[in-house]
TrEMBL record:
Gene Ontology CC annotation, any one: membrane
Membrane disposition: Multi-pass membrane protein
Subcellular location: Membrane
Domain of life according to the entry: Bacteria
Organism classification: Bacteria, Pseudomonadati, Pseudomonadota, Alphaproteobacteria, Rhodobacterales
Gene field: pitA
Keywords for the protein's UniProt record, in alphabetical order: Membrane, Phosphate transport, Transmembrane, Transmembrane helix, Transport
Name of the protein described by the UniProt record: Phosphate transporter
GO term, biological process aspect, one: phosphate ion transmembrane transport
Species the sequence originates in: Tritonibacter horizontis
């Protein structure tokens, strides 16, 4: 009884504080261990890929080489998922058209579907003809070069992801193959004309993507946002814009994403796109009219009309990316497999199904484990996106690839998408400044804005802009130097 009378409430407060500290400690432990869990699961996938290669090759003479190459290929696929896929999903997530979880699920499904259903079944030249295979001399030298290229490009993309820079995995592989080729056979082994075209794409890809995205944003602002009756303007123009998007993606998939299923030339792809665009435009007229009923005449209401098209565009971009870029992960691996099995390294390279599966699964796992960082960076941290702006970025990616294919220009999907984000941001800066000047000329009593305030109002983060541009410029030489060094090490070990 006396114990109850002497009860001290401060003991409960002390217990609450202790429990609070324990809860905070548990949260901190979970936060710290999350990256470790991701790295552990990634390591398990790399081991899984090596085991699959060992089971497929069994007791073959070069089984160990293929097993190591499969591990490198799995590592590269993980890095493509962590870095490249952000370009497709970042704008939609940044515009709040979908959550991070939904984006990851959609991207994983469509990336895998693109890789397995429409992924290229033959790679006619190693890394798009960067080096001449016959210049390598022996199959052992060729295999060592491909191993070095695979590991070097994966390491470089891993580093870029860590610093938060979306880089072109295609250019990383190209740089890796070039560096290993120079180390193995000298500068004469490299197709410098092809390398010049790739260097030109560093400028062409983001500029085209940015200009197209900015052009569509200007159209939306002029014809919908700045109109007195925004909803009436949206009923007229949103079906047209969705039809253009559907037509662009139809042509894009026909040209780039369905090569394995059926080969379609650019002219027929454009005709397919026009037919789909007209059909979708007609279908969307009553749909948009229904969606717009009861909406208030303000910009926020317009976001509703662009949400679903934006989600569909992100899914289609992921499908096309899986169909095309899975070869970046498994192309050198397939070359190693063929050279190890047959000794032939100068002919077209078949992509075995098990190699494609490793690439598709690796991209999905990499996206799930490490993708959110780059998705947030592309979607939120370069410039502020809403559904209309993100729609312009997605549409720009499809149209720019079609234009580049028509002109015969090699372009990077990463550079196009990020260039589209930059284009939208810089256009908003220009348009805001233009409207401010117009208002100031109409109202002479408006005060001038100080230079410091002008810099603070910039709508594109200059630090991210400069970091990304620098990463793009040094991707090929950095991957090449790293690959050459790894090739020297591999040859030193195997000799």
């Amino acid at each position: 009884m006396s114990d109850n009378n002497n009860f001290d409430p401060s003991h409960l407060e002390t217990l609450d504080r202790d429990l609070g500290r324990l809860s905070t400690l548990e949260q901190a432990t979970a936060y710290v261990s999350r990256p470790l869990l991701g790295m552990g699961l990634a390591l398990l996938f790399v081991v899984f890929a090596a085991i699959v290669a060992a089971l497929v090759f069994g007791q073959a003479d070069n089984a160990l080489i293929v097993v190591i190459a499969a591990a490198f290929g799995a590592y590269m696929a993980l890095n493509i998922g962590a870095n490249d896929v952000a370009n497709n999903m970042g704008p939609a997530v940044g515009a709040n058209a979908m959550s991070m979880g939904v984006a990851i699920v959609i991207a994983a499904i469509f990336e895998s579907a693109g890789a397995l259903l429409a992924g290229g079944d033959v790679v006619s030249t190693i890394a798009k003809g960067i080096i001449a295979p016959e210049s390598m001399g022996t199959s052992a030298s060729f295999i060592a070069a491909m191993m070095a290229a695979l590991l070097a490009s994966a390491l470089w993309v891993n580093l870029a992801t860590w610093i938060g820079a979306p880089v072109s995995t295609t250019h990383s592989v190209v740089g890796g193959v070039m560096g290993a080729g120079i180390a193995a056979a000298g500068f004469a082994a490299v197709s410098w004309g092809k390398m010049g075209a790739i260097a030109a794409s560093w400028v062409i890809s983001p500029l085209l993507g940015g200009l197209v995205a900015a052009g569509f944003l200007w159209f939306i602002k002029s014809n919908i946002i700045y109109r007195d009756d925004k909803i009436a303007a949206a009923r007229t123009w949103v079906p047209v814009l969705v039809g253009i998007m559907a037509g662009a993606f139809s042509s894009y998939l026909a040209v780039k994403g369905l090569k394995k299923i059926v080969k379609i030339d650019l002219t027929n792809a454009l005709l397919i796109g026009v037919a789909v665009a007209v059909l979708v435009w007609l279908v969307m007229i009553p749909v948009i009219r229904k969606q717009s009923e009861g909406l208030e005449n303000r910009n926020k209401s317009l976001k509703v009309l662009f949400g679903i098209p934006l989600i569909v565009s992100a899914a289609l971009l992921s499908f096309a990316h899986g169909a095309n870029d899975v070869a970046n992960a498994v192309g050198p691996l397939a070359a190693i497999v063929q050279a190890s099995a047959t000794g032939d390294f100068t002919q077209a390279i078949e992509l075995p199904l098990w190699v494609m599966v490793i690439g598709a699964l690796g991209i999905s796992f990499g996206l799930f484990l490490f993708g959110p960082k780059l998705i947030r960076m592309v979607g939120n941290q370069i410039t502020k996106l809403n559904p209309m702006r993100a729609y312009c970025v997605a549409l720009s990616a499809a149209i720019t690839v079609i234009v580049a294919s028509w002109l015969g220009l090699p372009v990077s999907s990463t550079h196009i998408a990020v260039g589209g984000v930059f284009g939208v941001g810089f256009f908003r800066e220009w348009d805001t400044e233009r409207r401010l000047r117009k208002a100031r000329s109409a109202m002479s009593d408006l005060p001038d804005v100080a230079p410091e305030e002008r810099r603070r109002r910039k709508l594109v983060r200059r630090s991210h802009f400069l970091t990304i541009i620098a990463a793009w410029v040094i991707t090929v030489p950095a991957a090449a130097i790293l690959s050459a060094a790894i090739f020297v090490v591999i040859r030193g070990i195997t000799l």
